[in-house]
Amino acid sequence: MKLKLSLIHAIEQWLNKIVKRPALAVTVAILWLVVIGWLGYGWNLGNVGLIDETEPLFAEASRQMLVTGDWITPYFNGETRFDKPALIYWCQAIAYAVVGVNEWAVRLPSALAAVGVMALVFYTVQWALQPQNKSDPNSSLTYPYVTAAVAAAVTGLNPEMIIWGRTGVSDMLLTGCLASSLLCFFRGYAESETRNREIDEIQLHSPFSLPNKWYLACYVLIAGGILTKGPVGIVLPGLIIGVFLLYVGQFWAVVREMRLFLGLGIIFVLSVPWYVLVIWRNGWNYINSFFGYHNIERFTEVVNGHSAPWYFYFLIVLLLFAPYSVYLPVAMVRLKFWQRSHWRTQTRSQQLGLFAFIWFITIFSFFTIAVTKLPSYVLPLMPAAAILVSLLWGDFFSSSQNKVNNYPLWLLQVSSWINVVFLSVLSVALFHLPHLIGQDPAAPNFQQSLQNAGLAAMGGWIWLLFAVIFAVLILRRYWQSIVGMQLLGFAAFLIIVLMPALFLMDQERQLPLRNLSAAVVQFQQPKEEIIMVGFKKPSVVFYSHKQMKFIKLTQDATEYIKDIANKSNLPPSMLLLTEKRNFFKMDLQPDTYENLAIKGAYQLTRINFKKMKPQKLEIS
């Protein structure tokens, strides 16, 4: 115990020296964010091929935008793509112009959004936790910085954020806009309390005065959210901010303070013009597709078979916010959020925990009510979850014992033991992972390759080791060390297991498709149509830069080929992409086709119509 106290005291003295030198403190904070950001989102970002099937849809639509110069209507494979608004395509197209058309450029907007949120979480937490009276001997100067560092690391190093922060789709950009708008709102809300009251009174009675810069940033970011995913970009932050202000009893005061109508005007001016232009170009096709199908129907009906039970997001948060998720209940209980009178008497900066709680609960409830369910839908609540957990662990870095006594310690102990059990179960599952995962026809050798590489076993040993370490720390009540070991455990798992497994999956599943794309470019003749039968892999369209016709059923493809063969003035041949196992179901005559390339589970075949015609006439 004496060793523990002396070590903690030495670390605290070292941190105090850093904090007392602002330039050094800023440098250390930036280095911390750079290390976490690079590990989570920069390292090998573009060294893995695009993952079918959603990511290449965005990548190719953005490439078409750059090539054609049409920055209004997104296109994929010669057809309009109205799934998402234009901001993600604009960002990817600009990245193409800067770094070239490659995987780095596709994922750069998502990675930057993730790192931006992580940095803003650090800044907001550190600012909100600054002591009211820095000369108070009982106040800890290191507490805000250490808690903010934990908040940033937990935000950046969790499975949900890393998955979508390294994927070139719109989800992380939405989270970047939404989470940043909420953090900017809170900073503006808290900062307004400390401003000169006389100036505020003058501004409140002036119809031409602007809200503070943080409120302005909030409005701009909400407009970005609308341009990223539509109405949800304003509905979610509006709900969260509205519920929070009603709870603390400051709704109308803050509405006036924010210059809400002016803010709505800013949002309107920034976000609506593109919608006007795209509707002007495409009319009801866009309205029905985007607003009807991709917004209203996704909330009220099951779309694309994405249904799930009511408890779906409990499992998603448990697994994809691991290993910190088991501490969320105690982090919420710690707030005593049910004591409304208590929260209404707190200064605004002290309401960060309550704001993060309402942020988390609102998004969780909203998408639980929605009928269509996807793991990415709860991505915007991850920064709030990270803030809640960091405030919990931050209590143990504070010199105030009252913070630790804010909640029953037994509840923290129970949560910690649950975490030990959870990690033990996870380690056992990883030991048996090659036998648990199903056979993927697109990567038939992946199971064996995973077992041969020993990655699942290494992951099992990592989490079993850290489960034992956590058990020892709990027994010895080294609470301050647990959060650090959690971050270390996840970083080790990411470096040793997840990244090599991603490369292995890419080699088994996506590399054959990239090779197939190269074969298409090599073998296609002028005016030769390409059809993809039995599967839909948009990555082939992106890598080959060729338009293709997707046909789901082999029977339909056979009929289509026969129809084409019977037409006059037809091209002499057609290229056919199929899985090897499905090719023979098409029952083509041996002398009518030529196999050009076999790549993994796929093959490229040329259909010769000239040799088919006599057979067709003979049959008729």
Q: Which features would summarize this protein structure in a list?
A:
mainly alpha; 620 residues; 68% helix; disordered C terminus; 5-stranded mixed β-sheet; 2 domains; globular; two-stranded antiparallel ribbon
Give a concise summary:
The chain has a 5-stranded mixed sheet. It has a two-stranded antiparallel sheet with strand order 1-2. The protein folds into 2 domains: 18-407, no CATH class; 512-619.
List the helices and strands and how they pair.
Elements: H1 2-19, H2 22-42, H3 54-68, E1 75-76, E2 79-80, H4 87-99, H5 103-128, H6 143-156, H7 159-165, H8 171-194, H9 197-204, H10 213-229, H11 232-248, H12 251-258, H13 260-282, H14 284-300, H15 312-320, H16 328-335, H17 340-344, H18 352-369, H19 382-394, H20 401-404, H21 409-431, H22 433-436, H23 446-453, H24 455-475, H25 479-523, E3 529-533, H26 538-544, E4 549-551, H27 554-565, E5 573-579, H28 580-583, E6 593-599, E7 602-608, H29 609-619
Parallel strand pairs: 3-4, 3-5
Antiparallel strand pairs: 1-2, 5-7, 6-7
Helix pairs in contact: 2-5, 2-6, 3-4, 3-26, 4-5, 5-6, 5-7, 5-8, 6-19, 8-10, 8-11, 10-11, 10-13, 11-18, 16-19, 18-19, 21-24, 24-25, 25-26
